[in-house]
Amino acid sequence: MSKDKLIVFDKIKKGKPKKNPKTLTDQLTILWAKVQKLKNRNNRITSDLVNMKSAYEEYVEKEHKQRFQELYKLIEQLLFLEKDAKLSSKQRQVFQGIINQLMVDALQSPFIDTMGFRDLIPEYKSAHEKKSKKKTKTQQKNERKQEVLNYLQYKSNHLENIESYFSEEQWLEMLSNDEKVKKYFDQIIAPILYQKQLKKAIHEANNVHNSKEKHNIDNQTNTLEIKHTSVNSLYKQLAKKLHPDKTQDVHEKDKFHDLMIVISTAKKENDLITLLNLYTEYFKEENVKFNESEAEHLYQILKNQLSKLEEEKANLLSSPMDEYIYKIFAGVSGRGITKKAYSMANDEKVIFQQYQHLLNELPDELSLKNYLQNYI
Q1: Which of 152, 172, 191, 346 is the most buried (most CB within 10 A)?
Q2: Residue 263 and residue 235 in contact, taking contact as beta carbons nearer than 8 Å
Q3: Is 270 inside any structural domain?
């Protein structure tokens, strides 16, 4: 492409992406369409998530928590009873199938840490690996040590060589006393984890700072060198034309006020895409054109925007609860969200009652054996 040839922005904005892009215009058209698609997706997630969380809190939250609180008690009770119950191989097979199903439900919930489900994993794993044959004292000791080790590794997020942090005397105490396991974890491992987390936080803070510094330098360079891909230039022109003081019409003044909020936010966030969209909408008499250097710069901006929008999506679903809520309401919108929330609340109550009934039905080892026998 010659230096005198200009790329018309309308061809990028309104053009149809080609499967085999040959020109810079084609490449820009594809990138522009992708950016718009991701922006719309993120806006939709933002809007839907507000409605989903509202419906969840109003209809589902109370029943949801009750169900998982009851599930925790049920799993804990089953694992406790299984320790002393002398199960046949078939009974153990049924038991493992039931406990597997319950644990999968628990570990896929947003309450995996807040309700302590993760702490049940070592006991669950130990129960899963047990066999019906009798074990020697050495085997029992080794299994107990592995059980404690599993617990420590899960609590420490798999700290390397965790076994070496404890003396032989401390290990003997932990093998015979669960309270000692928690005590030594808090005394020895917790401070180590804190220091690791502190170092990680400092490292991440330095990376953010360096990224912002680079971002600011890039922005200054862009503003000096480029006209139509300058955020400041587009902002000034839009603000001048769309300022609320430019009109006396009350409705139009309100509209301009809302637009200025959008424009100011775009400037603050260095959102060139939004400003370009608004510019072409309100300066229709001007046909925005890019020379080769501007077009290549826009190409890089659009590529960076794609990465930023993906990061933005991750931040929109920033907590396990947000992810869970968005997942369970996936595929519904509008009034459908409320309808599904109401239906889910009823389902949660039914499951809660089932767990409650099972807890009452299994007060001791004998009742557990009889219950399992019904499935053989």
Answers
A1: 152
A2: yes
A3: yes
**Who's near 232: CB < 8 A, 6+ residues apart?**
223, 267
d(CA 267, CA 262): 9
Show the tokens assigned to 53: 């969380």
b/e code 262-282 from CB counts within 10 Å (16+ = b): ebeebbeebbbbbbbbbbbee
Spatial separation of the C-alpha atoms in residues 356 and 174, rounded to whole Å: 33
Is 201 within a domain? Answer: no
| Domain span including residue 234 | 229-284
Give the count of domains, the chain.
1
Is residue 316 assigned to a domain? Answer: no
- pTM for this model (two decimals): 0.56
pLDDT tens per residue, range 87-142: 888 898 899 899 999 999 998 888 988 898 988 888 888 777 665 455 677 877 88
CB contact at 8 A, 181 and 207: no
- Residue 157 φ/ψ region, left for φ over 0, alpha for ψ in the -120 to 50 degree band, beta for the rest: left
